[in-house]
Amino acid sequence: MNEIDHALPNDSYSSTIQSLGHLRAHLKLVFGNTDDLAVTAVRVGEQKGLLCYLETMTNVPFMMDNIVKPLSHFSVNDPNGSADALLEEMNEKYYGGLSGTYIRDLKEFTQKLAVGQAGLAVEGASFTLMLDVKQLDVRSVAEPTTQTVVRGPKDGFTESADTNMSLIRRRLVNEKLRFEKYTVGNQSQTSVYLAYIDGALDVELLRRIRARLQTSLTSSVLDSGNIEELLRPRELSLFPTVYNSERPDAVCAAIMEAKVAIIVNGSPFVLVVPAVMNDFFKSPEDHYQWFAFGTLTRVLRYLAFFFSLFVPSLYVAVTTFHAELVPTVLLISILAQREGIPFPAVIEILLMEITFEILREAGTRMPRVVGPAISIVGALVLGEAAVQAGIVSNINVIVVALTAISGFVAPIFTFGANVRLLRFGFIFLAAVLGFYGIILGSAFLLIHLVRLHSYGVSYLSPFIPFRIRAQKDGILIFQTPLPNDEGGGNGSHE
């Protein structure tokens, strides 16, 4: 049996520190041969000690000036005092501003090292002193890339949870603003924070979110999208029930509406629950300009949503089953364009839709310099070539272009991406049943939306159930307060 095996008991991972040799052996067992682990022998007064830290997670120059250097100047008041008293005296004299904490458990000790703290252990002491000296390279605050506005704040969230919380705290100067920390992911040990205003929140909502995070069995959380999957309702739905945003002003507005923001360390996207359908048609800029123009743009977003969802299926239904509904002049023009096209309307529209989806994905994954050229020029060249080759008609290209542009109008990208899947479903229904298929699919979709809830709030709130006061930020934006209704409130809770 070697020295390490002798120094390390079988239950060492959860045991307390017994000696410096025991601590060295435990770090060797947990971290292995990692090159960035530093275990340095030091002197604390007349006692032997160890300074442990991860070089890749700590500010080494700062630590040398503020932790190591004071050790050389430390003089003991009571040479006969215990090792615990020695460590406490050292902390009080020199480390008062470094957020020092005392740790007795070895598992907690290694967890603190992994997040960028330094541990100071003294021979004979029953605990170690953990000092917060972490310094991580983080991206500076910049303009959001997915939710741009012409007028409004230009700062966006970053991958640092501390930075994101400070951006929220600066806007909500409210003593009742709370941040709760949770650790999610068995391997990643990701820090997740809940942000809400105490006293304005539904207690049941907060309890359900806490339960989801505390009972999570996921192995790793690398982005807020992993947490979003945990928070989704159990029922299957293509509509997102968790709002995500890079904009601090949008998240602060949601918190003031008695919602909970979820900040995930390592992700610039902050989640908000509960989220209803109307939230995905809002933009913070709606309230930064004249209310009439904000109302107009919001109405346009709803119209674009219906265009994106129904225009291709309507084209297939009209050209396949219901030609009598089209004005004669327009019908003659459509038939003239389709003359010589070898495919039926449904195959024609699917070819163009799938081609555009491929171009969209290629434009997203290509390097930023050539991505726009691939998506725009490629669509124009392929569309023109397909028309000249007689594979598709001009009206088909117009329909697909209008549908694609309408899909980009939604302020939240994830909402528009989910609608794309529904669009293909309506195309198949129109190809089989015509208008009857579209009406049948719309009926089932409406039933699904009426039954769908996000943490007890109706997904179609504030329209179903209808609340007069809640309409001030619905499709129409009102500057003056609306009269009270009988029910009151902003939504429906089960």
TrEMBL record:
Record has Hydrolase as a keyword: no
GO cellular component terms, semicolon-separated: membrane
Keyword set, alphabetical order: Membrane, Transmembrane, Transmembrane helix
Stretches that traverse the bilayer: 302-321, 371-391, 397-419, 426-450
Domain of life (superkingdom): Bacteria
Keyword Membrane found: yes
Alphabetized Pfam families for the sequence: GerA
UniProt-listed GO biological process terms: spore germination
UniProt record similarity statement: Belongs to the GerABKA family.
Name the record gives this protein: Spore germination protein KA
